[in-house]
Write a structure and sequence with these properties.
Elements (H helix, E strand, L loop, with lengths): L1 E5 L2 E3 L5 E8 L8 E6 L6 E6 L7 E2 L7 E6 L4 E6 L8 E7 L15 E4 L1 E5 L2
Parallel strand pairs: 1-10, 2-11
Antiparallel strand pairs: 1-3, 3-8, 4-5, 4-9, 5-6, 7-8, 9-10, 9-11
């Protein structure tokens, strides 16, 4: 099982990025997919989650209304749309799953599979 986050890059404050999480050897449809991030010198924190069947995403308070997770099961891909980015959002972003179907809180210790991260840098 391999997850891979992609789509990061350098963006100016107020800009947008869409991250993708893809998988090999693993059907994302069945599982809740989480997004975490880790900024330099900081602990990893949960950002968002989207359940498999309901597909109703939620996000941590600091990004609520700006970041939205979605999924395209036909493409076996989960997305994190990030709008109105701020310098504080600079971090490596990871997708992960705890192999359950519904989101159960942004608990990184519960994750079973992690993708390689993608760097997001918000700077003018």
């Amino acid at each position: 099982v391999q997850l891979q986050a992609s789509g990061g890059g350098l963006v100016q404050p107020g800009g947008s990025l869409r991250l993708s999480c893809t998988a090999s050897g693993f059907i994302l449809d069945y599982y809740a997919i989480y997004w975490f991030r880790q900024a330099p010198g900081k602990e990893r924190e949960g950002v968002s989650c989207i359940s498999s069947t309901i597909g109703n995403p939620f996000a941590t308070d600091s990004v609520k209304g700006r970041f939205t997770a979605s999924r395209d099961n036909a493409k076996n891909t989960v997305y994190l749309q990030m709008n109105n980015l701020e310098p504080e959002n600079t971090a490596i972003y990871y997708c992960a799953t705890d192999e359950t179907s519904n989101c159960r809180g942004l608990r990184d210790y519960a994750m079973i599979h992690w993708g390689k991260g993608t760097q997001v840098t918000v700077s003018s």
